[in-house]
Amino acid sequence: MSVKVDPNLMKELKEFGLEDASKCFHCGNCTATCPLSTRETPFPRKLVKYAQMGLKDKILKSSEPWLCYYCGDCSDRCPRGAEPGETMMVMRRFLTANYDWTGFARKFYTSEITKNGKICV
Q1: Where are the domains of the chain?
Q2: I need a surface site. Which of 36, 39, 59, 70 has the fewest CB within 10 A?
Q3: What is the pTM of this model?
């Protein structure tokens, strides 16, 4: 089985609002405090690792971003301020844009109105 690495993945994710994933040093606090994380679905840490390693295909096949309800516990407990909860929301925007055949989601999430995935008024 081969693994395909995309060296531009972090840059692409920044278009959707990713800011702090590079701060993560994988201490595991986010996964340990998440009430929905299990041994079978250890998120958000797993998705942060995929982003750091450029594993776009693994992110595209992942269901974990849809399991997160963004309670913020993981971000509150992150000792480095990596905002893993926000990273999960970035992953949702990224997945939505990649599976939207119209291209509208990508234009919406990366437009000037929604700078870095966040709506600016």
Answers
A1: 9-117
A2: 39
A3: 0.86
